[in-house]
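> example.struct
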């Protein structure tokens, strides 16, 4: 990270944004021209290496992806469903092979057969449906998933603009400390993966003296298997925006930024419409509802890089810097976007603020368990009988969600990969021991993470699944620290060689590599990826034995 580049990027404020301009320059052909990059470097007083270095990082701006027309989802759920070879083959009948790229993941884990074409996402069941989409003839009615709640907080029905924003109007009559106290009292922990207390971060930023502060909503939901943030963005956008505005009020921020992944174009459109509605009702701008609260919202559309979900890489991304992870301290609450105090929170965390402000922090605190308050959304893929989004109180048995609410599996499963690529691989026999909360997962050596569930069928060899995970980890590594940059690649090579030949991996070497990744990596990307490998070796040792020496 360069503090100077942060200042230079921030010189024009968030409205005239370098990263956004890079995206616009790439829109037509898939990558900005050399002249575009030179002009942007000049405009923002940076070196040409900076603008080139940034754009060459992203799937939707890098020169080698220029001219791609369709992208096939290569996420974990589509891989396990085995639908993607057929999707690719059908696309190749209508497009040239070099016009087809890959995206991970499109959040269509409930249907699979997912691909992106002409700025939109689809999942198709057969070749006819794919060709209909390409030829723009009959469009299949897709993206259907169940939404089931045993305790509704985030999935409560939207009551219409006036009613929904009544708690916002009431809150503006109170000092910001009141809102902050309610959030603190709710004891809500971040839903993006790390489970960090939201109130703590807001309080730290509130205490900072600064003319400018930012709230950033992390809508980069990159974990293959997760689509619960997409549910909120597309079905409950006003819950999210309510949360961003209230968090902004609590810390004295003037800007809320919703950073939405490029793989969710529909979400961008829906959230923008909701922002427009707020603006039309004069809930944004100066002196909102005569409260002296000045606040505005802006969407920044990402450009395809998983690591931008990590909060400091995300901040670098918005600044138009190469999205490498920053060392901490300083923490974003002290020195975040454009070197200003910044709070980054996940979509689900922010969306829960509506319930907290409306019903009180104490009321939220009473939901869930002692250390994990509230409810949690869970994404279930197409291997359960009722795929979709499930909302349960923290502490609910996992078995209740899988077998009772979702109806069980459609075929024999060997494991569940829960919490994204960095989450644990839970063998089916362990389901009955887990409850949906941070502590239960940690106690059993797994990770709740964002609570996405990818079902791994009996028919999927564990070595192939691990190979897929390390391929993903190597491809998405930001490259800042060498244990991860080199280690994920080496692990992928070992697993691939063993999966495709009779090569046997040295256990000592593999254990060493995993230890180095876990201990030596700068962030949880490299530090977290050994967990699923460890679980797989522990619970599927017999199956994996033939791939290892001795
Ligand atoms: C490799 C990596 C990817 C991440 N991806 C996401 C993501 O897609 N969405 C998200 O909210 N948090 C993600 N996080 C966690 C963020 O760094 C950060 O902790 C989170 O946005 C904070 O919000 P919360 O406290 O509300 O969870 C990721 C972290 C790492 C290490
Ligand atoms: S662990 Fe990987 S993703 Fe994280 S900083 Fe190091 S290289 Fe980047």
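> example.seq
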């Amino acid at each position: 990270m360069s503090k100077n580049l942060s200042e230079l990027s921030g010189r024009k404020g968030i409205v005239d944004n370098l990263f956004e301009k890079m995206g616009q320059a790439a829109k037509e052909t898939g990558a900005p021209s050399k002249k575009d990059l030179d002009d942007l470097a000049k405009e923002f007083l940076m070196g040409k290496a900076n603008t080139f270095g940034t754009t060459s990082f992203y799937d939707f701006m890098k020169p080698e992806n220029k001219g791609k027309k369709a992208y096939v989802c290569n996420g974990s759920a589509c891989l396990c469903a085995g639908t993607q070879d057929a999707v690719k083959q059908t696309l190749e009948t209508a497009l040239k092979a070099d016009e087809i790229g890959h995206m991970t993941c499109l959040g269509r884990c409930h249907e699979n057969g997912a691909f992106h074409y002409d700025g939109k996402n689809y999942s198709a069941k057969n070749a006819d449906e794919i060709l209909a989409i390409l030829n723009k003839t009959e469009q299949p009615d897709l993206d259907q998933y169940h939404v089931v709640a045993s305790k509704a907080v985030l999935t409560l029905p939207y009551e219409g603009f006036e009613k929904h924003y009544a708690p916002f109007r009431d809150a503006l009559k109170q000092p910001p400390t009141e809102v902050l106290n309610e959030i603190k009292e709710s004891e809500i922990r971040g839903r993006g993966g790390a489970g960090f207390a939201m109130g703590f971060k807001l309080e730290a930023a509130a205490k900072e003296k600064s003319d400018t502060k930012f709230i950033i909503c992390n809508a980069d939901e990159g974990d293959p298997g997760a689509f619960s943030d997409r549910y909120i963005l597309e079905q409950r956008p006003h819950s999210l925006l309510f949360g961003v505005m209230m968090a902004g009020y609590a810390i004295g921020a003037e800007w809320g930024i919703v950073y939405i992944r490029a793989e969710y174009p529909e979400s961008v459109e829906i959230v923008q419409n909701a922002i427009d509605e707020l603006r039309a009702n004069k809930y944004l701008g100066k002196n909102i509802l005569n409260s002296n609260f000045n606040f505005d919202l802006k969407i920044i559309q990402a450009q395809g890089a998983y690591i931008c979900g990590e909060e400091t890489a995300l901040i670098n991304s918005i600044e138009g810097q190469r999205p490498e992870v920053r060392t901490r301290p300083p923490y974003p609450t002290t020195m975040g976007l454009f070197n200003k105090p910044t709070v980054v929170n996940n979509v689900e965390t922010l969306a829960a603020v509506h319930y907290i402000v409306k019903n009180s922090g104490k009321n939220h605190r009473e939901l869930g368990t002692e250390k994990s308050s509230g409810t949690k959304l869970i994404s279930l893929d197409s291997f359960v009988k009722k795929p979709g989004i499930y909302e349960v109180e923290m502490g609910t048995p996992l078995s209740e969600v899988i077998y009772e609410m979702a109806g069980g599996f459609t075929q024999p499963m060997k494991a569940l990969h829960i919490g994204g690529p960095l989450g644990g691989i839970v063998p089916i026999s362990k389901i009955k021991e887990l409850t949906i909360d941070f502590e239960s997962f940690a106690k059993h050596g797994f990770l709740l993470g964002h609570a996405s569930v990818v079902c791994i069928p009996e028919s999927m060899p564990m070595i192939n699944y691990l190979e897929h995970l390390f391929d993903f980890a190597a491809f998405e590594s930001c490259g800042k620290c060498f244990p991860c940059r080199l280690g994920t690649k080496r692990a992928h090579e070992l697993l691939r060689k063993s999966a495709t030949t009779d090569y046997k991996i040295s256990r000592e070497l593999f254990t060493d590599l995993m230890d180095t990744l876990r201990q030596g990596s700068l962030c949880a990307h490299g530090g977290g990826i050994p967990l699923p490998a460890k679980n797989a070796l522990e619970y599927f040792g017999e199956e994996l034995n033939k791939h290892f020496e001795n």
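> remarks
Residues 80 and 456 are 6 Å apart (CA to CA).
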